[in-house]
Amino acid sequence: MMEGVVVKLPSFPFLNPSISSPSSSSSLPLRLGFRRFSASLPAVKEGSVSLGHLTRPDFPILHQEVNGSKLVYLDNAATSQKPTAVLNALHHYYEAYNSNVHRGIHYLSAKATDEYELARKKVATFINASDSTEIVFTRNATEAINLVAYTWGLSNLKPGDEIVTSIAEHHSAIVPWQIVAQKTGAVLKFVSLDENEVPDVKQLREMISSRTELVVVHHVSNVLASVLPIEDIVIWAHEAGAKVLVDACQSVPHMVVDVQRLDADFLVASSHKMCGPTGIGFLFGKSNLLSAMPPFLGGGEMISDVFLDHSTYAEPPSRFEAGTPAIGEAIGLGAAIDYLSQIGMQKIHDYEIELANYLYEKLCSVPNIRIYGPKPSDKVQRAALCSFNVENIHPTDLATFLDQQHGVAIRSGHHCAQPLHRHLGVNASARASLHFYNTEEDVDDFIRSLNDTVSFFNSFK
Amino acid sequence: MSSYYISSARFFFSKFPISFHSTNPFLSPIKPPSFISFQKISTKSPSPLRSSSSSSTQLQPMEELPPKLQEIIKLFQSVEEPKAKYEQLMFYGKNLKPLDTQFKTKENKVEGCVSQVWVRAYLDQDKNVVYEADSDSVLTKGLAALLVNGLSGRPVQEVLRVSPDFAVLLGLQQSLTPSRNNGFLNMLKLMQRKALELLIEAEKGGESSSNGQVVDDGLSPPSGSSEKPIENSILDSKLDENSGVESGSEKGSEESLSDLGSRGKRIREKLERELSPVVLEVEDVSYQHAGHAGVRGSDGETHFNLRIVSKEFEGKSLVKRHRLIYGLLDEELQSGLHALSIVAKTPSEAEAK
């Protein structure tokens, strides 16, 4: 690895001028816990200007019409939109310094390497990993989970070992472990939902035993909008000698996530859900764990020496990053992290709690609606998304009509959580999911359109 | 969204040569779709994605499509407003004969649909393929009904020749998401695959499997088929019409004569007078269109199926023949006749059939 050989000051693309703050330069991310500085943005709602209104101009894609109506994008849990800063970073990379990383000597490749490794540092800082070598770049969270399954899983699991997870997991957190369990003879155990329609944490605690080797859980559910007490779960798992893999896809983009405080062993997230480009994600793994894991994909970069009859492997994270990485995309993710940090994850979280409550409350007013997951309260926080069904109307019909007649983008289906839907007794649900650039007006538009849609279909019956 | 049905169906398609004419008189100007979904599907070697339907000059000629399907296409083309298209679609779905639960099996399930869709197929005594379908989503059910109505009761070869491109002509693409469109394609592919399987089994001569069995569904013999009340299955009437045509008798037209309203009678008289047809069938199918707003408010007699065999058509191109007929019925068209579905043949052509 060429880290540090050529020391050049990184030049950041100028961050969004519309979020102007007196000390913008000082909040640029550097190595040490900058993230803890609160962004110098005004309060979440300053007079009538919410975070949503403030940031909307940064997202060009939101300002368009679809099917003759203004676009109302409410499918953020599927993927988020990207601010101009990220688009510029990507463009600038390919325009000014695209070059292969780590092995080159020349100027461009040194610069590309710097920026790529800087992006890694930004990710590490963003989630408060103790070192950037604990961040492995992957294609997305799914690949990251597969990485753990095929390396840590295959080399550590033995017949009878237990993997504890929940029925509400995303398929990417279930299927790789099914495959590995089959290969190793390990057993998957599933925690069900409690009466609040949240994974039963008590049951989870009881399920963890000396036989448990791994606990795989989501931080925030992409269907139920519930938040799990990861810190507690990790304590229980560690007491039993088990490791914990946290699926943070729906949490990292929306709130402060601190892997040291959580003490998670593995944590995964995808860039495209946090305002970064697609094609890049990451695995966080504690150094000692990563060091003990055999390689995942074989090829260049992950080796130390290659002979005809054997090869030796590089140290993590390189060991798990075979081949030319998604360099531009990693840098784009870095720019996304800069953008988010500029606003401040706590501010984003606070605003989204408000939006979440507003969405839930408004949605409740739709007749014959059934919203999945817990009711929000002082003690129970919901993420800013709602999966729901309206009696006697198929969610696909809802989503189609909403899109065609109202330009409202929601999702219909099982949201990669078939076991959960089976448990809830439905084939599919509709889901509206928000991000910090959505506004209360978006919610109002959605509810109005939804009511119109429901009337249309009801009138036909 | 799974596409393995599409790729597996290509295998079938390559066996049946399909000719594409370079012009299609029935293409109505349609806005370029904002999604590029089914255009990928081509019976030729993989062609590049086309993002605009108007740039596609390789649509299957309408005449090759089953007659009912042609009619449905024309209907949807005449309905401009998306909401009205939905209503018409849902109307089809509402009138679809319910599918018995025992047929909602894995083999009958259409893969890749966001909602659940089942299609059942069997051969009737004339070796035509008959379809039944169901779905839990009303829009998807409408699409299924559209296909069932369009394809059911037709010979297997005709069904297999149907290229999915006709979906462009429906103009529903703008009203439906790409994933639904693909569901539509998968439905069609499944129906074609089942038709082929039935044909193969029937040719093997086997009667053991239920698929190859001649099914007597308690279909009533053709009687008053043209003016069935809306609640009854459109499927039944189609079968009746089909068996009427196949048996070569004029029963169908005799039946419809007695049920024709004043306009229908006028149409008959005019055509008989002007064309001295060898065969003339006039069928009032307005009830099929009762669902959409364009027809609401009129007192029926808006849509007719015409089948005319006459010497007058000799030497005239298809377009000329249609123009001739439209010309003769101009008065009717001005006073509430909405659409005609025309089959116009010369006596020699009819015999060659």
UniProtKB/TrEMBL annotation, chain A:
Catalytic activity: (sulfur carrier)-H + L-cysteine = (sulfur carrier)-SH + L-alanine
Family annotation (InterPro entries): Aminotrans_V_dom, Cys_dSase_SufS, PyrdxlP-dep_Trfase, PyrdxlP-dep_Trfase_major, PyrdxlP-dep_Trfase_small
Pfam families in the record: Aminotran_5
UniProt GO BP: cysteine metabolic process
Entry's EC annotation: 2.8.1.7
GO molecular function: cysteine desulfurase activity; pyridoxal phosphate binding; transaminase activity
Keywords (A to Z) from UniProt: Aminotransferase, Pyridoxal phosphate, Transferase
Domain Aminotransferase class V, residue spans: 72-446
The protein's required cofactors: pyridoxal 5'-phosphate
Superkingdom assignment: Eukaryota
UniProt-listed NCBIfam families: sufS
PANTHER family per the UniProt record, alphabetical: CYSTEINE DESULFURASE, CYSTEINE DESULFURASE 1, CHLOROPLASTIC
Protein name: cysteine desulfurase
TrEMBL record, chain B:
Keyword Glycosyltransferase: no
The keyword Transport is assigned to this record: no
InterPro entries: BolA, BolA-like_sf, Fe-S_metab-assoc_dom
Subcellular location: Plastid, Chloroplast
Compositionally skewed regions (Low complexity) per UniProt: 44-60
SUPFAM superfamilies recorded: BolA-like, SufE/NifU
GO biological process, one term: iron-sulfur cluster assembly
Domain annotation Fe-S metabolism associated: ranges: 74-193
Any one annotated GO CC term: chloroplast
Keywords: Chloroplast, Plastid, Transit peptide
Main location: plastid
Residues in coiled coil: none
Signal peptide stretch: none
Annotated region described as Disordered, given as residue ranges: 44-63, 207-263
Name this polypeptide is given: BolA protein
Species, as recorded: Corchorus olitorius
